[in-house]
Amino acid sequence: MTAFPIPTLTGTDQLQLESVALSDIAAQFGTPTYVYSRKALTDAYRAYETALAGRKAMICYAVKANSNLGILDAFARLGAGFDIVSGGELQRVIAAGGDPAKVVFSGVGKTEAEMRLALEAGIGCFNIESPEELVRLGETAATMGKVAPIAFRVNPDVDPKTHPYISTGLKANKFGVAYDDALSLYRRAAQTPGIAIHGIASHIGSQLLDAAPVAEAAERVLALVEQINDAGIELHHIDIGGGMGIRYEDESAPHADAFLAPVLEVLKDRPEAIHLEPGRSLVGNAGLLLTRVEFLKHGEEKHFAIVDAAMNDLARPALYDAYHAVVEVEKSDVTADVYDVVGPICESGDFLARDRKLAVRAGDLLAILSAGAYGMTMASNYNTRPRAAEVMVDGDRCHPIRARERVEDLFANEQRLP
Questions:
Q1: How distant, in Å, are the alpha carbons of 58, 222, 279, 302 from that of 267?
Q2: Which residues sit opposite 139 in a β-bridge?
Q3: 83 beta partners
């Protein structure tokens, strides 16, 4: 939630996470490795709890941000609910000890199999995103002899002023039902067998640095809530989504209490519980990607620090031209130079950072910061590269929470032609 809470510099000129030197983690687990701080995860979650003190609320961690079982376990122990967008994510939550009754199932393309899985597990709510989904869920629940708890995700058509790829609340986006159609859909749902109306939801985008659009969306949703109530339909919760941003470079990132204050003011007199779905703000600055410099390549126009991590490990720079701070793990006496930090993948778009002043030599370690969200969850095996290891630091201890993949793992389910 704060700017770069990790890592810190010790008196021996070694970067450490909590009380563990990053060089020791590299020696034990190799590179590239994602490294997370349990304290940072906990502090970020507690900040939301403090901001919501005195309100009936549920914090549902957005699993898509980082779905490692160790991360989910940490949040489940804190009492978190979970926002999922697939049956696979539900299975992860259950495997990590999460409570299905605190699960919200979002997403525009839920299959019948996923609906059945969620109904059998007894999840807390389905966020419905189309009339067709309502029909499928109602029929599925009825054939199972169950009742599906639902909210409609309403598209409030509010500009979140964020990257267009992570804007989700405009008319042109695929998410949610149209604001003007919502009331009739609630009336229809109230008459649909196998359906129980529990709430209403909205989510306008990710990496939001200004609370004003979220408050504006809440005002629009609240006006709709009053119309729904007037139609004789009771709602138990209002889901305001997530999306609070973090500092990657020089952004003025909000704290949870400042971000939520305008929304809570809009909803101050409401009896409904408040649900929210933070992801990035809980894990983004709680994790880093540890990587080693393989070569320094000096070209005519550019200098390159070629590292063992790549775009398959951290896709955000190549996908969004996203910025991640890069720092040397150990202090060096070499002269600093300006480098593009790139990986070994056979793509010109394989870069992790551009034009960074670094004092490094081949073999040195670098930490790519703010990599806890949408890092490992977006990783791939492009170029037949095994995915990185993952480690959780807890005080002076390290817990491996994902073993590094092996090449043979990648083609274990493939076979040659007969």
A1: 15, 8, 22, 53
A2: none
A3: 62, 104
pLDDT digits (tens, 9 = 90+) for 244-291: 999 999 888 899 999 999 999 999 989 999 999 999 999 999 999 999
How far is Cα 60 from Cα 111, in angstroms, rounded to an integer? Answer: 22
Peptide bond into 32 cis (omega under 30): yes
> pLDDT tens for residues 279-322?
999 999 999 999 999 999 998 899 999 999 999 999 999 998 99
Q: Which amino acid is at 77?
A: R
Helices 256-266 and 212-230, axial angle in degrees (round to 10) = 30
Catalytic residue, from 60, 125, 346, 398: name it.
Answer: 346
Rounded Cα gap, residues 89 and 92, in angstroms: 5
Neighbours of 230 (CB within 10 A): 9
Give CA–CA dist 43/6, Å, rounded.
Answer: 12
Has 346 been annotated as catalytic?
A: yes
d(CA 124, CA 352): 39
The residues near 269 (Cβ < 8 Å, ≥ 6 apart) are none
pTM above 0.85, yes or no: yes
Residue labelled with tokens 């949408």: 374
- CATH number, span 106-278: 3.20.20.10
Domain range list for the chain: 8-37+284-410, 106-278
Residues 388 and 68: beta-carbon distance below 8 Å: no
> What's the CATH number for 8-37+284-410?
2.40.37.10
Sign of CA dihedral 75, 80, 81, 82: negative
Contacts of 77 (CB under 8 A, 6+ apart): 97
Query: Is residue 89 a contact partner of residue 64, using CB atoms and an 8 Å limit?
Result: yes
